[in-house]
Each structure stands twice: as structure tokens, then as C-alpha cells.
From TrEMBL:
Region (Disordered): 372-397
Domain Orc1-like AAA ATPase as annotated: residue spans: 28-165
Name of this chain's protein: Orc1-like AAA ATPase domain-containing protein
Coiled coil: none
InterPro entries, per database record: AAA_16 (IPR041664), P-loop_NTPase (IPR027417)
A Pfam family hit: AAA_16
Domain of life of the native organism: Bacteria
Length: 397
């Protein structure tokens, strides 16, 4: 990690897809996948499906993996799911990678069907350009480095028909390459429900054995570490009370950690320490910004039924009995359960003790209540134990 000098701006990285300076949490999975880059002992890690909340760090995780893979000498291919994925990779990314090979790496490619690789340095042919096949290109790339590792990351996976069809085509090429014994790891990131759809496609057996990682919120201690370390790398310090407040504001939500940290950093940028006053200013502004940039969009994307469920959940201190929600909705518990499960899958709510369900996206509860449709009674009882957010309620505005 690079040291940043004071005056060069904030070390925080608010916004989608911005690689954080300090990637908090997820230590185990990062360590496990990094060890694959070192040992080539894949286990269940040929294919990783990263799902989770909007702004929870899926894209950043792909970046962390790419950095780790590169530092161990792996080839890295990255793209977004969507129309043209296979063509982009096979006509542009792969030829570029193959063309970047050193002379001695190239000599190992003799005997392979070079004309199928889409390379300029192999073209002494006349007539139309043959369509390069991704599986051959991957084989060539691997061969250039003695079956060297290749990490492929695909972001923005979603269940739109075009995307799924394209991903199916892409995954089929990978399936062939894996069957040839290539050392490939592929990491997909997207919304959980969509990845499940993808796995359903029958020829994609390797996807069925995927490692699934579901990104939610960071723990309080991990959140604290991100703030403290990021500020430190930025060349400043932070007062304890300011750090406490920022931790409570962020509620472990990565998007909000960066946003709140950034506001606190900028409030009085010439002071050597970030103070409680800076954190208080950041509090107001960060909640406002996350509400308008994230929470309101999440809300607008939800179906009417999902919204009805969440309204029935709102206003109870963040948590309610399922039976009570069914009552408030005037529906059977079976019906209500279907909506609960959908919302659990997309990470907006979580089961919380026997028969209870709770919001898991911070500030969604408050947002819904602010729409005027929530019920303001506070009948909440929460157990407090361990490294959980129960001990760090979000501060009042
Ligand atoms: N583990 C982490 N620790 C600290 N900050 C993080 C972490 N992961 C992500 N962030 C920060 O959170 C914000 C959102 O991250 P990112 O864009 O990776 O989320 P995402 O899950 O891909 O979102 P989306 O669902 O919209 O694609 C960025 O500002 C990023 O720097
Ligand atoms: Mg993303």
C-alpha cells in the first residue's frame, strides 16, 4: 500500500467501483484465494461467485483478487457481463495479452493452432480472419508460462436475458478450458439471485461447484480498522471519540465507511488530527448522501410487494416478528415468507432470532419511516453480545 502525503487529498474512496486503500474484513476468503495463486492448489476455488448488498464491496474484491493474482505472476482478464462479453475478450483482451508475451514465452506456442488465436504476429494468411476461440486462446496463454495461472473476473452479473445468454457462452468456453486441465480461476460478482440463475444452466458444471461468497456488512472492529488505517496511511491521526462516532455512523457498510471518512477528512483538512467536530459534520452529510445515492435507489428498484413488506417491517426499531409483519400486511405467513426470502437473498433484510426479521441495509428503516409510511412504535428488544452492531446503534441526527 502506498503512503499518501498530507495535502494530497483524501485517502478515502467514496463511490461505486473505487478500490479502497484499505480493504476491510473478508480476511479468510482473501487469504484462501491468495494461497491458490501461490500454490495452484485450487480445491473448490476454480470458480467464485461474489454476491451481496449494493455497495458492499464486490467490485473492490475483484480488484483485490486481481492485484494478488498479478503479484504472483498470473495472467489477469477482467470484464463486465453483458452483451459482447465473449467477443470483447476473444477479439481484444486475449489477443492483447498474447501479444504482450515475451519472445521466449512465444516460442512455447509452436504447434498450437496459432491462426485461431486472433493474433497479428501469426497472420500470414489470406482470406477472411478466422474467429478466435476463447478456449484456444486460454490454452495458448497458459502454455506460454508452463500452464501458468489465469484469473478471470467478470463484474456486473445480472439476470437480464442477454446477460445470462452471454455469460452462458462465456462459461462454456471456460468449462472446456478447465476440462483441459488449465489453471483458471474465475470470479463473478453480481446480485445473488442472478448468479443462481446462471448456475441453473446445465452445461456449466464447474459453476455448480462454485465457492459462494456473500458480502454483507463489516464487523465493528473491521470498520474501526478501515477508518484508523486509512487515516494513518493518509498521514493524519484521528481522535478516539471521532473514530467511535464514525464507526457508529457507518454501521459496517463499506460505501458509507468511505463516504463518512471522506467528509470527516475534508472538514478541516489542515489539522493533523481528525476531531469529533469533523466526525459530527461528516455524520450529517454522509447519511444524507448515502440516502440519496444508495438507499433511495435501492427503494425505487424494489417491487411493490417488496416495498409493502419493508413498510410493514419499518418503524419497529429495525426488527419485527414475522407474524406481526404478516398481520400488518393482512396476508398469510406463507405469502409473506416468499417476500422475506427474496429480500434476504438480496441482502436488505436478515433473519434475526427465532421468528424475527431485521433490516440489514443500514438506514433503510429510517428512509422508509421518513417516507411517512412506517409505523413509529418502538417495540424493539435486542440482545447485545460480541462483535455485533447491537453495541453500536447509529447515532441520532
Ligand atoms: N472491504 C472494504 N473495506 C473498505 N471499503 C470498501 C470495502 N469494499 C468496498 N469498499 C468501498 O465501498 C464502496 C463500494 O464498493 P464497490 O463498488 O466495490 O461495491 P459493490 O458491491 O461492487 O457495489 P455494486 O453492488 O453497486 O456494484 C467503494 O467506495 C469502495 O471503496
Ligand atoms: Mg460493483
Amino acid at each position: 500500500m502506498a503512503e499518501i502525503s498530507v495535502g494530497s487529498g483524501s485517502p478515502f474512496t467514496p463511490g461505486y467501483g473505487k478500490q479502497p486503500l484499505v480493504f476491510g474484513g473478508h480476511h479468510e476468503v482473501v487469504a484462501e484465494l491468495t494461497s491458490v495463486f501461490e500454490t495452484y492448489d485450487f480445491g473448490e476455488n476454480h470458480s467464485i461467485l461474489i454476491s451481496g448488498l449494493r455497495g458492499a464491496g464486490k467490485t473492490s474484491m475483484l480488484g483485490v483478487l486481481r492485484d494478488a493474482a498479478k503479484s504472483h505472476g498470473w495472467f489477469v482478464v477482467s470484464d463486465n457481463a453483458g452483451a459482447g462479453l465473449v467477443d470483447r475478450v476473444s477479439r481484444s483482451t486475449m489477443p492483447q495479452l498474447l501479444e504482450s508475451l515475451t519472445g521466449s514465452e512465444r516460442t512455447r506456442l509452436t504447434g498450437l493452432q496459432l491462426a485461431q488465436l486472433g493474433l497479428q504476429w501469426t497472420t500470414e494468411r489470406t482470406g477472411p480472419e478466422p474467429k478466435p476461440l476463447l478456449r484456444h486462446q486460454l490454452a495458448a496463454l497458459a502454455a506460454a508460462r508452463d500452464n501458468g495461472g489465469i484469473l478471470i473476473t467478470v463484474d456486473e452479473v445480472s439476470s437480464g436475458k442477454t446477460r445470462l445468454r452471454e455469460l452462458g457462452r462465456f462459461a462454456l468456453e471456460l468449462q472446456h478450458a478447465l476440462e483441459e486441465g488449465l489453471n483458471i480461476m474465475v470470479a463473478f460478482a453480481g446480485v445473488k439471485i442472478d448468479l443462481d440463475e446462471l448456475v441453473k444452466q446445465q452445461h456449466l458444471t464447474f459453476l455448480r461447484r462454485s465457492r459462494e461468497v456473500d458480502f454483507r456488512l463489516l464487523a465493528p472492529s473491521e470498520t474501526r480498522d478501515v477508518f484508523a488505517q486509512t487515516v494513518g496511511l493518509g498521514g493524519r491521526a484521528i481522535d478516539d471519540d471521532a473514530l467511535d462516532l464514525l464507526v457508529r455512523v457507518a454501521q459496517g457498510y463499506p460505501y458509507l465507511i468511505q463516504l463518512a471518512g471522506d467528509y470527516a477528512w475534508r472538514h478541516n483538512v489542515t489539522a493533523p488530527q481528525i476531531s469529533l467536530a469533523d466526525a459530527k459534520d461528516a455524520h450529517q452529510r454522509a447519511i444524507k448522501a448515502v440516502t440519496s445515492r444508495v438507499i433511495s435507489r435501492v427503494w425505487d428498484d424494489l417491487s411493490e410487494q417488496d416495498q409493502t413488506f419493508l413498510r410493514a417491517l419499518a418503524g419497529g426499531g429495525g426488527r419485527r416478528k414475522m407474524a406481526e409483519i404478516a398481520d400488518r400486511m393482512g396476508r398469510s405467513s406463507q405469502y409473506v415468507n416468499i417476500y422475506k426470502q427474496r429480500l434476504v437473498d438480496s441482502g436488505y433484510v436478515q433473519p434475526d432470532g427465532r421468528g424475527y426479521v431485521a433490516f440489514s441495509l443500514p438506514y433503510l428503516d429510517q428512509y422508509i419511516s421518513s417516507l411517512g409510511q412506517g409505523d413509529a412504535t418502538d417495540d424493539d428488544v435486542q440482545p447485545a453480545s460480541g462483535d455485533t452492531w447491537n453495541d453500536y446503534p447509529p447515532p441520532e441526527l
